[in-house]
Write a structure and sequence with these properties.
nine-stranded mixed sheet, Rossmann fold, 20 strands, 14 helices, single chain
Length: 446
C-alpha cells in the first residue's frame, strides 16, 4: 500500500498521520520524528502522540516484544493497517511460530473438483477451513454443525456451500448426510474442547469426542471418503478427560489408517488463539473490565497458533499425508517453543498502551481440573519418523488392535449414555494405557 493511500485510509477513519518513525534506512513524505536501527532503540516518550500505526505486524518475536515494551512505557496504543482498514494490533498478530512455506499448489490439487465436508464448520477452526476451501474450487462443500447459530453464520458467509444441521453423536444422522453428500474428503473438527468443562462432564466428552469420531469416520469410509481428524497436543500423555478422549480418537484413526483402504489421519494442533474459549478473548474481556488478568500458574506454558496458522497447518498436513504411502502416523504441527501464558497476559496489557503490574495487575488462580503445567508434542510411548513436510512431524506409536478399540469405544459409549461418569473415566484411561490393546504389527506400514 502506498504512503498516500495509507494516509488517506487513516484520515478517513478519524486519525491523521502526523509524523513517521523509521527503522533503518529509508525515507517518508511525513516528517521523520525519530529513526533507529531497531524497535528496541526507539524512545517514544517525547513524541507527544498517543497512537502508533503500523503498516504491517512485526514478524520477529524479539522486535515485537521490544515494540510493546517501548509503546507501553509511553502509554501509546498500537494500531495496524489491515486490508486498508485500521484496527488494534492483536495478540494473534504477534504469537505463533511462523509455519514453513505452505504448498499452495498441492493443497489446491487436493481440493479442486472434490466433494469436501467439514464437521464443526461453524466453529473457529472449521469456519476458517471452510473459507479457505471455498476459494479452492471444490466440486461441493458441505458445512455440518450441531449449532444452529454457528451454521446460520457460516452459511450466510458462504452461500454456495451446503449447510447440514446435524450432531456427530447421532450415527444415523451421520450416515444419512454422508450418503446424501457423498464427500471424498472430510475434515473432522467438531469436538468438546474446554478442558475444565469436559472434566466436569466426562460422559458428554466421551459422547462427542469418542462416539462422535467413530460415527464420522465410519460414515466417511462407508462412502469412500478420506478423513483428517483434528486432534490436540493435550492428547499427548493426557492428564484430563478431554485429552484422553482425543487420544483414543487418534488411536482409532491410526488403527483404521493402517488397515483400511481409506485414510484416517490425526493432526495435532496446539492452543488456537482467537478461537472460542481461548485465552486471548478471555484476556480481552478482562482488560476491557479494567483487570485483573487471570493466569492459572506463573510457570504454565502452551503451544500457540493463530486461527489462520491452524488452517494452513491442517491443509498442509492433509495434502502431504493423503499423498503419502506411510500409514498409521499421527501428525503433529511443529509450533516452536511453548510460550509462558503469563507473557501473553503482559503482551495483551501492553497492546492497550498500559504497563503490566503497574496499570493492570495479573493474578494467579491455580491449575484447573484436567490441566497440565506443560504440554508436549510427542508422547512417552511415541517416536518421531521422517518429517513429511516442513513444520509437520510424523509421530508413531505401538499399534493397537482395531477389534479391541471397537469393543472399548462401544463400552464407553454405553457408559456415557447412562451418565456413569466414574466408570467411563476409568475405562477411558485404561484404554489409552501404553500396554493396552497392543498388536504385533510394524508401527508404520507402507
Amino acid at each position: 500500500m502506498g504512503e498516500a493511500l495509507a494516509r488517506c485510509d487513516v484520515w478517513a477513519q478519524g486519525l491523521e498521520l502526523t509524523c513517521a518513525a523509521i527503522i533503518g534506512p529509508g525515507d517518508s513524505p511525513l516528517p521523520i520524528r525519530t529513526r533507529a536501527a531497531s524497535w528496541g532503540a526507539f524512545d517514544f516518550s517525547d513524541l507527544g502522540v498517543r497512537r502508533l500505526v503500523l503498516a504491517e505486524a512485526p514478524q520477529d518475536g524479539v522486535e515485537a516484544r521490544a515494540l510493546l515494551r517501548r509503546t507501553a512505557a509511553a502509554r501509546m496504543k498500537v494500531l495496524l493497517l489491515d486490508g486498508g482498514r485500521l484496527r488494534p494490533l492483536k495478540l494473534e498478530d504477534l504469537i505463533g511460530a511462523p509455519l514453513g512455506e505452505v504448498d499452495g499448489r498441492r493443497i489446491g490439487e487436493m481440493i479442486a473438483g472434490k466433494r469436501v465436508l467439514i464437521t464443526g464448520a461453524g466453529g473457529s477452526i472449521g469456519g476458517e477451513l471452510a473459507r479457505r476451501i471455498a476459494g479452492l474450487s471444490p466440486a461441493r462443500l458441505t458445512l455440518l454443525d450441531s449449532s444452529e447459530y454457528n451454521l446460520f453464520n457460516i452459511g450466510n458467509e458462504l452461500p454456495q456451500a451446503v449447510p447440514a444441521l446435524a450432531d456427530v453423536r447421532d450415527q444415523y444422522a451421520m450416515k444419512r448426510w454422508f450418503s446424501r453428500e457423498r464427500p471424498e474428503l472430510v475434515f473432522h473438527t467438531a469436538a468438546l474442547k474446554q478442558v475444565p468443562l469436559v472434566e466436569r462432564f466426562p460422559s458428554e466428552g466421551v459422547l462427542t469426542n469418542v462416539a462422535g469420531v467413530r460415527h464420522v469416520v465410519e460414515a466417511a469410509h462407508g462412502v469412500g471418503a478420506d478423513v483428517v481428524f483434528v486432534s490436540t497436543d493435550k492428547a499427548v500423555d493426557p492428564s484430563g478427560v478431554m485429552g484422553a478422549s482425543k487420544r483414543l480418537g487418534e488411536l482409532y484413526c491410526q488403527a483404521l489408517d493402517r488397515r483400511g483402504q481409506h485414510r484416517a489421519v490425526p493432526v495435532r494442533l496446539g492452543n488456537v488463539l482467537g478461537s472460542s474459549g481461548s485465552v486471548a478473548p478471555t484476556f480481552e474481556r478482562q482488560l476491557a473490565a479494567g483487570g485483573p488478568l487471570t493466569v492459572t500458574d506463573p510457570e504454565v506454558t502452551r503451544f500457540f497458533l493463530s486461527i489462520a496458522q491452524a488452517a494452513d497447518a491442517l491443509l498442509q498436513a492433509a495434502a502431504v499425508s493423503l499423498a503419502s504411502p506411510i500409514r498409521g502416523a499421527a501428525l503433529a504441527i511443529d509450533m516452536g517453543e511453548a510460550l509462558p501464558v503469563v507473557e501473553l497476559a503482559r503482551k495483551m496489557i501492553r497492546l492497550a498502551g498500559l504497563q503490566p503490574d503497574v496499570d493492570v495487575p495479573i493474578v494467579f488462580t491455580g491449575l484447573r481440573p484436567g490441566e497440565k503445567l506443560h504440554e508436549a508434542l510427542i508422547g512417552a510411548e511415541e517416536w518421531r519418523e521422517a518429517d513429511p513436510a516442513p513444520n509437520v512431524m510424523a509421530v508413531a506409536s505401538p499399534p493397537r488392535s482395531l477389534p479391541d478399540l471397537h469393543e472399548t469405544m462401544e463400552r464407553l459409549t454405553l457408559l456415557a449414555r447412562e451418565g456413569a461418569d466414574s466408570e467411563a473415566v476409568r475405562e477411558l484411561f485404561d484404554a489409552i494405557a501404553c500396554d493396552a490393546m497392543a498388536e504385533p504389527l510394524p508401527a508404520l506400514a507402507g
